Batch of 2 targets.
Target 1
Amino acid sequence: MAPRPIALVSILAVCFFCTSCATSLFKVKPAVELPAMPSATHNVEADGFVIRVAPLLTDEETQQLFEANLPVAGVLPIRIEFNFQSGAPIELKRVRCEVHDSQNRIWKLLSTKQAVSRIMKANGIFAYNPYSKKQFEQDFGAYAIDLKTPLDSTQPQRRGFLFFQTPDKRPVNGGGDLTLVIKKLSNLPTPITILLK
């Protein structure tokens, strides 16, 4: 064989090996291993459903789940659970969630891809295997709560995380009061507010 085809075959073999051995950028703990909601949750009952919000995760707990320090990346994970009790099915796709801080700044709700991008940027990851990023997005996204499927008696419970970004994209500061605001949920005329601790 001529030198050029040999070099081409070698490069293709290396590329194939790299993609076949691609793993996630971070070793995310499988979502199925997430323990049950803690007993010290903040509960709100309204119009045939109950909302439960877990205490905020510590830096160590986010490391254990995602192998990444989300607060350093300016990402706040909030664990939430919706429980259907009775009545008509509850649409969740119209729901709008925000976090307000003590200065009344609004923290933006992030999609899985946006949260992953923030984490990668904060960790200085700019060169990566695209398959590894895709796997990380998939593993990380398994923790996100489904707000597209209605709540009803056939699927009475929905749980997962909401991910928010700090207003200035700086690390999450442990100090200050944060409030979760849930708007346009069911037929409630006023937003639901839950103090986060």
Target 2
Amino acid sequence: MPRIMLLFVLLAFPGSLIVPPAGAVEADRVLDPASGNPAIDMPGFLRVSAEAARHREDRRVSEAEFIRMSHQPGTLVLDARSRAKYQELHIRGAVNLSFPDIAIESLARVIPNRDTRILIYCNNNFLDALGPFPAKLPSASLNLSTFIALYTYGYRNVYELGPLIDVDETKLEFETSRDSADR
């Protein structure tokens, strides 16, 4: 897109997102001109995030549904919190892959089949356990980041625990790293 046209679009439509069509990036241009780094693609992230948001609309499940699904063969419960918070307390049987460690190789090792049903949860699903589940701002909820990351890497069979649950009243079973083998 010529610079004058780009400037016009930005001035005429402040806050607009300009995403070039797939394959339109030339070898000498970066994906995200603002970053100056071809390995960082904000427009691509925003595009995939919007796709993931649409896909997520019917993927939030109740506590009872989460429990039922977690007991079915071929289902993996993924905890993307830090290793320390995971070790402090996590849903029984959950596998820890800390969000900063989600990458091509770690996903291939932990979840080699992209069709695996994956159940996710985060800090913002639980009340009365601020030690292991410290509250985040709703727009910074780890469920959102994790869902988008998994979607970006091609995992589409992802479901998210939806409700806010009191850890003292839930039917979910928890364990600490002392209770389970290191996963």
